[in-house]
Amino acid sequence: MNLYLENKLFLVGGATSGLGKAILEQLISEGAKVIAIARTQEKLEALQRTDSAIEIVVGDLSQQAFLDKVLQKIGNRILTGAVINSGGPPAMPVMETTLSDWDEAYKTVVRWKIALTQALLPKMIDSGYGRLLYIESVSTKQPVENLVLSNAMRLAVTGYVKTLSQEIGGSGVTLNILGPGYHATQRMENLFAKNSELKGIPEKEIRKTFSDQTAVKQIGKPEDFASLAVWLLSPLSSYITGQTLTVDGGLVKGTMG
After folding, report:
1. How far apart, in whole angstroms, are the C-alpha atoms of residue 257 and residue 252?
2. Which sequence spans correspond to the domains of the chain?
3. What's the pLDDT score for residue 256?
4. What global pTM score does this model have?
5. Which of the listed CATH numbers 3.40.50.720, 3.20.20.60, 2.40.10.270, 2.30.42.10 matches domain 9-182+221-247?
6. Which segment of 26-30, 53-57, 146-150, 171-175 scores lowest on mean pLDDT?
7. How far apart are CA 103 and CA 106, in angstroms?
8. Alpha carbon 245 to chain centroid distance?
């Protein structure tokens, strides 16, 4: 299927690992150009060496100075879409959290996404086209054990995206959220380790417990997740906006999952 992405410019956050990297790789395979963002220069440089269509910007999007740097990199070029993605807050149960943890989680999960969105939107609206895709979590539909900070803050992003999608609905810019379930990423490995520590159970057993919670009885592949993400970034998705779609192997049990 031709997704009509050849030579189109995209911004991808969290581009050096996990779901972000999988999305970047599929965009490149479709002939797109990508500005890759991550915090580790060595990993970004290694990624850039794999394809000349990749540009890199090293830093932390939660910092205003770095956001300005990203905007300078885009310059006067037309940005077709952006994958708004980064790691989440640390795993912990409610009673282990402090107010400082909540303040930091707001900065990590919510604040910078609003800042980036509001920086990118004006030019997209002026051009009459854009695709904004937020990578959140299955916790937008169903809480994940020992991830209270993520469970709560990602719902704030959901409310923001839904409201904004209604306000700019006729602009040609769409905004959607993908909520990954359990995929084979470093983030999941960290969650397995935390649950193993809390419960005193080997990580192998924890991993099986997680996979058994899904209808398909397995942990997802990042490249499968990316295939849907790239379609949502394409012109073919023009009639989908303001949606939160879970990619979870049937983890969410509710009918609205």
Report:
1. 6
2. 9-182+221-247
3. 83
4. 0.94
5. 3.40.50.720
6. 146-150
7. 5
8. 12
Neighbours of 221 (CB within 10 A): 12
Task: Using the CB atoms, write b or e for 146-185: b if 16+ within 10 Å.
Answer: bbbbbbbbbbbbbebbbebbeebeebebbbbbbbbbbbbb
Instruction: Show the tokens assigned to 122.
Output: 């004006």
69-102: b (≥16 Cβ within 10 Å) or e: ebeeebeeeebbbbbbbbbbbbbbeeeebeeeee
Sheet with 79-84, strands from edge to edge, namely: 54-58, 33-38, 9-12, 79-84, 130-135, 173-180, 244-247
**SS3 label, residue 34:** strand
pLDDT reading at 62 higher than 90: no
Nearest to 241 by CA among 130, 154, 115, 124: 130
87 contacts 136 by C-beta, under 8 angstroms: no
Distance CA 248, CA 257 (A): 9
Strand partners, 240: none
